[in-house]
Fold each of these.
Amino acid sequence: MAAAQTIPDAHEKLIPTLWVQTSVEWRGSALQAYRAARVSLDQALKDKKWTAALEQTGSYGKLPPAIILDIDETVLDNSPGQARQVVGKTGFVVRDWDAWVAEAAAGEIPGAAEFCKYAASKKVTVFYVSNREAKSEADTRRNLQKFGFPLSDGVDTVLLRGEKPEWAASEKSPRRKAVAEKYRVLLLVGDDFGDFLTGIRTTVEKRAEMAAAHAERWGREWIVLPNPGYGSWESALQEPERPATALEQLWKRESWLRTK
Ligand SMILES: [Mg+2]
């Protein structure tokens, strides 16, 4: 019998980054998500009881329509920034991320700009709620403009972390609430559980329960994009306390693997 092949060490981001950058499957998943979004948008416009935001309260039927999208890995593709981690054998470093954002060089998630333009053509205000920092707003707008994403000039539709004191946290619920006070929120579009629900920084088990409680929303009011590279799903593996070193984090991840 031949000896088992030894697998070479590789950066953990290699496969997810290549999937995003080269596979037709990733591209198809994104197009599929935005196609579902378009179908839902048309339904939601007709149904005045429809809302996607749990923060939406009171009588909202007569409010003007809006949609809320996340930015990173939802409308903009940062895989080149991730590829730099693989090539440079580094992890996520805030300084490197800031430099990447300042380049305004992120790509477009397939189908995103066309969908947002379609929504705008239906008089739906397009909001972008992102955990990019407020200082990055000009660069972020510049990046969005490259692909023709609708940006309203009358009202600030790019709502970033720290833009207001009450928006200091990565928790997006206060920003969804601010939109829901003036608009009927037709859709939430994102790549992370936090783009839809509050209190998601918890255990894997609790997150699964929360998602199950809202199972009927996926593909309707809530449109999720695939992001295999990072997210609160990965942080959840490290709960209740994230290990200090990269190696310990790796062991913690591996401890989740099911082998039967
Ligand atoms: Mg995102």
Amino acid sequence: MIPWQEIDRAEIPGHKGEVILRKRGTEFSMRTAGIELMNSRRHGSEAALAELACSRVKPKSGLRILIGGLGMGYTLAAALEQSEPDTLITVSELIPAVVRWNREHLGHLAGMPLDDPRVSVEEEDVVVTIRKRKSAWDTILLDVDNGPDGLTRKANDRLYSISGLKISFSALRPGGILGVWSSGADEAFTRRLKQCGFQTETVTVPVRKPGKGGRHIIWLAGKP
Ligand SMILES: C[S@@+](CC[C@H](N)C(=O)[O-])C[C@H]1O[C@@H](n2cnc3c(N)ncnc32)[C@H](O)[C@@H]1O
């Protein structure tokens, strides 16, 4: 068995914890607080988040997509695959080192998506990006924790609260979709989405393609 090798670690802004990037052969892993945030061997559901949300958005031209956060770039690469030449994608990433790791170590995993001219990166909390504009986005894709509960840092809880969901609702264009990735179901979160005016759909997706292993959950919450 090849041992894990630590490549780098970085502090999480606004939180006491760290994120650690490790490598074992061709496999990469990001961990925080002893829990794996992302592994390069399992990314089917991260891609499905973008595929499912983008396939539901109409019309397809002039799309504006917000992704939080970058991770290893699989959601971003899948969003690019769904996009037209005039699509613009903003990625909000809280930890500047994660952006640097993608440029230095991880970019090849998802086909160098940061090099695409349709992509821009905001090194900030996605909450801040969402708050900046109203009726701005056709889709907001959130994969910043293990689900609607702040794993990376407790402050992320506000994304999934009633007040946070109302801000996402107003940041979406009519017909827009909020997509949220999760490792498991959460009925209370579905109820909160409905309370905020979203039409919700929950899709169960395989962790890996073509369907080996467990299942993850994606909420597709539409703004009427
Ligand atoms: C599970 S990974 C995302 C995986 C990604 N979907 C992919 O395809 O590789 C979570 C990412 O969200 C970032 N993150 C956590 N909280 C955030 C926040 N409040 N705003 C922006 N990015 C955040 C983390 O630093 C990490 O890069």
